Amino acid sequence: MDEEYHKKTLDFILETLKVQSNGNELSFIEVKDSNINPEVVGETISSIANICTYEDRDKGYLVYGIRDIDLEPVGVKFDPFNLKNNSDKSNQDLEITLRQMILGVDFQFIPFKFDGKDFLIIPISKALGRIATYKSKAYIRIGKNTSELSNYPDMEKKIWSKLDKLAFWRMPAKSNIRPEDVIKLLDFETYYNLIQLPIPNDIELIIERFKQENFIKNDGGNWFITNLGSLLFARDMKIFPTLQYKTPRVITYDGDNKLATVIKDQHGSRGYASGFETLITWIDSQIPEPQKITRTFREQRKLYPAEALRELVANALIHQDCEETGMRPLIEIYKDHIDISNPGNCLVPTDRILGAIPKARNEILVDIMKRLYICETRGSGIPRTVGDIEEWQLPAPTFVNQENGFKATLYAYKSFDNLNMEEKLHACEQHVAFMYTKNSFANNETLRKRFGLGEKKANVISKLVRLAKDKNLIKDFDPSSSSKKYIKYIPIWG
What residues contact residue 419 under an 8 Å CB cut-off, 6+ apart? Predict the structure, then answer.
């Protein structure tokens, strides 16, 4: 199914080239046969990201395995599934090497096989919060050619003007500091550990790197730490009083609602990146142990899948509206469910959260958290969460927009018989949408597996499906099909 999906992406790229450029390359699409030189790849990624911002495009592509003369899919002559950086003899994965050298853009290596040939697609986002650079230099695509952006000052100025809406992240959180204060106030050790780079012995190299990342700024000789730098890597948020209310809060209740006794009320004290693992560990320690084994196929010692929790907490930090006042990321742990909330509504309709094109409110924050391997930006966090929940056969999670905020809720295990009809319908609708986002189809068999039911319960699922269709939650993929055994379902919006 993945190969089929990637082939469709390749077909879309080729069709775009044929229709929009009469078979030539476009500013935001470059095709190559087999030249995988890391320098060329790095410069091209920077150039496509910047031209996408300039032209108001969300993404562009670098594609390997296509002959640029006639757009013939010839495949590549290298192994796209095992790309290494051989230029410096480090033998490190090429994608990891490039992530260490490319700033301000999200990209992904997608190798796949088709018709016995190997291909590599690299989707490239627009510049995220800053001009995209490779080895501290910015590049731009002019037609089908790559050039340094500094050669085109008018284009550079226009790109910056499009990025100025992200001014909050560049504002000073602490001013009038010395360069040597940076390493005292910001957790540079965690930064280098997460990005998988050795810590430089020279403090000036750390300062220069943090300056490139927009963690610190030099304004006419006066250094300051930005909101971005402090929210990500503060050793102690008390040093940044204007941002203390942006730290996550974890409340543990001895019951299943807000009227229950509060057992613990913990406030975060470190930056999002430097304190993320500590935050996750603390949340995990507060979740009650299950009273019985609730998983069908293997023993369960926790109420919720660890990765699902991790994804939702990361989403709450990354996608919050930091300009909303009086609200902060909040994790509320109850006996039978957990609420994870953040300021700012979800930017896509919550009933389409599994199928909508992802949107990022804080592009510069998303870019950095992706490079630190704390989150992804492909919109895969929610589908992976739902997938984990379905594997554990837990009640379907809910996603709700509240007044100026968004809340995701995970629920402890209930057997199918103990779910009310609303919960059953919600799980049915969500399963169908989840399968659809995987380029697959739900049917009665997949629904029985989702609920942990055997074949003897086929009639129960059939009744649930009929009710879901009556309520316009799902529909048949092929209404004209006469087969009842192999009928497939898709979301009502599919």
Answer: 395, 427
Amino acid 224 reads: F
* Percent of the chain topping pLDDT 90: 55
Question: φ and ψ at 194, to 5 degrees?
Answer: -70, -35
Q: What is the pLDDT of residues 94-110, one digit of tens each?
A: 888 898 899 888 898 99
Tens of pLDDT, residue by residue over 108-136, are 899 998 888 999 999 998 887 789 999 99
**Full strand arrangement of the beta sheet holding 133-134:** 102-103, 133-134, 137-142, 145-148
How sure is the predictor about 338, in pLDDT bands with cuts at 50, 70 and 90? very high
What strand order describes the sheet that includes 117-125?
A: 29-32, 59-64, 117-125, 110-114
Among 3.40.120.10, 3.90.105.10, 1.10.10.10, 1.10.3720.10, name the CATH number for the domain at 418-491: 1.10.10.10
Is CATH 1.10.3720.10 the right assignment for the domain spanning 247-411? no
CB 114 within 8 A of CB 7: yes
DSSP-assigned letters across all residues of 410-463: EE----GGGS-HHHHHHHHHHHHHHHHHTT--B-HHHHHHHHT--GGGHHHHHH
- In this structure, are residues 73 and 15 in contact, taking their beta carbons and an 8 Å threshold? no
Distance, in Å, from the CA atom of 432 to the CA atom of 132, rounded to the nearest integer, reads 38
**What pairing do the DSSP bridges indicate for beta strands 330-333 and 262-267?**
unpaired
Q: Distance between CA atoms of 113 and 7, rounded to whole angstroms?
A: 9
Which candidate, 168, 27, 192, places its Cα nearest to that of 100?
A: 192
Q: Where are the domains of the chain?
A: 2-164, 171-234, 247-411, 418-491
Classified by CATH at the fold level, domain 2-164 comes out as 3.30.950
The C-alpha atoms of residue 360 and residue 345 are separated, in whole angstroms, by 12
Q: Which residue has the higher pLDDT, 1 or 447?
A: 447
208-232 pLDDT, tens digit per residue, is 999 999 999 987 777 899 999 999 9
Q: Determine the pLDDT at residue 357.
A: 73
Does residue 21 or residue 60 have the better pLDDT? 60
- The pLDDT-based confidence of 446 (bands split at 50, 70, 90) is very high
Task: Please state the rounded mean pLDDT for residues 463-489.
Answer: 86
Is-contact 28 16, C-beta < 8 A? no
Q: How distant, in Å, are the alpha carbons of 12, 44, 316, 459 from that of 17? A: 9, 17, 38, 50
Q: Distances in Å between the alpha carbon of 348 and those of 105, 318, 323, 360? A: 22, 15, 19, 10
**Residue 407 neighbours by CB distance under 10 Å:** 18
